[in-house]
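Worked example 4.2. Below are the chains of a multi-component assembly; read each line carefully before continuing.
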Amino acid sequence: MSILCVGSVALDSVETPFGQADRVLGGSAVYFSAAATLFSPVQVVGVVGDDYPLAELRFLADRGADLSGIEQRRGESFFWAGRYHYDLNSRDTLETKLGVFADFEPKIPELFRDASHVFLGNIDPKLQHDVLDQVTSADVVACDTMNYWIEGNRDSLIDLLGRVRILMVNDEEVRQLAGEVNLLKAARWVQSRGPEFVIVKKGEHGAILFAKDWLFYVPGFPLEEVFDPTGAGDSFAGGFMGHLARSGSMTPAALRRAMVYGSALGSFACERFSVERLRDVRADEIHDRVEEFRKLTAFEAHVPAGDHV
Amino acid sequence: MSILCVGSVALDSVETPFGQADRVLGGSAVYFSAAATLFSPVQVVGVVGDDYPLAELRFLADRGADLSGIEQRRGESFFWAGRYHYDLNSRDTLETKLGVFADFEPKIPELFRDASHVFLGNIDPKLQHDVLDQVTSADVVACDTMNYWIEGNRDSLIDLLGRVRILMVNDEEVRQLAGEVNLLKAARWVQSRGPEFVIVKKGEHGAILFAKDWLFYVPGFPLEEVFDPTGAGDSFAGGFMGHLARSGSMTPAALRRAMVYGSALGSFACERFSVERLRDVRADEIHDRVEEFRKLTAFEAHVPAGDHV
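Applying the procedure described above to all two chains together yields the following structure tokens:
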């Protein structure tokens, strides 16, 4: 199975309490692919300017990404600069330059149109519709969004919900979208508009998958060093979709496992700037972290005889 | 095994988006006992004024609480009034009247001094020391505290850490106490000053137990209706200590299970005002909720042959 991923391919300048990185690889499609290619082939669609260091994406191609859908145009690449606060849970955007991304019109190469899995990164819902118009056979379509589109392009976004199987957003976004503070009710609101599954990402507090009649909660991994949280959500999405595509299944067991692999990749992404950690993470490290996740929440509910409550 | 609990016995007036309650049962010792007595006998030490409706505490005595350590004095009972915001994650204190609690000097009745388990509710660290001076044989001492004491009575509190086995605080408190944003590092800081275990309560995001060389994370239970979060932390503590005392064990399995029972009781506490829900919750409902917690995080890490990552 292969995954089509459409999103931003960007350059980021990031300051954290631990250091700074200038014009490093970033963007939802880059983080997603860096995680997903550890499990499954990925076909990437995006746009960059003539300033983009495309050679630095070669590690993605080396592990199974098809980058032929990344269009290079005259002009500047999407650039984002941000500074994280002391506790790393909040950040200020210092600068956003859309560059060639402002006129992005995703054209899905013929070869990519039979992808079984589609990830629509956080872009204009109108463009997310355009992608789905070109890819009609996908079994699993997941999409992300943000407050900007929830406020500014709400009708198109709500239409889109009828065309996706999985909505992946953070807790603030799902509350804003549904106009409902209670997460469970907010997820039900989304589900009533189409998506079979809602995944709510809660940063350091983990993530919840809401299915029709069950829930799955994976905690945030207690890292001793959170170095740079940029891209953790897209890395989560990549690990999740990558593992799901590899399993070729949508059973509760497969979805639960994919949630944990997603969380593992999200936690690795935080360990260094940009995709540095995702570039060199080894299979045994991923397995070990998944095992750590298991130990983190496992308990034996069995109560010995005589224990009445 | 029995538990000695020292804390506030109060009257609360609470406003939430769903309604309001006036001068209802509240205070750390009341919530703690309402949860802990479901598992184990509890001996309560506190003080109330002559306005306190002691008869309303009879349900605690009926299920194994010894209330003879609650002293009644001339004057007003500890009174707290608060209003929760729309999302129930934050609240404003409208009024606090310490009343007779201002001069509380815990006197531990002779009969209570051989308790195996001790819970020191959130009171002046000096008084927490006084309790421990009177109870020397306890095997498991747990204590709570708050920002007021962390700022105002820090030295005494840090001394106290050398005398307790479990510190139970919320995430803001442990960060403030340790002067460290990273939760894992903050917990290690506390452990280096005495406590073998640190439990960090994160409200709707669950709770983490930090042991020397393992961690356990229990998520917040996704309730459809959070009615009133007052006392959830003390109810958690009661369920945790109650189950621990009942098991008579401090093995990782017993501690993990106690964390889940604590979380179950914390979630029930939020379903109605005051201790109303804890008053009538049935054993089968508690077991069902523990089973829900198990399903919420359980996954099969086993990867079928051929799955390389």
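Take a moment to check your reading of the output against the notes. Residues 5 and 119 of chain B are 5 Å apart (CA to CA). The first strand of chain B starts at residue 3 and ends at 6.
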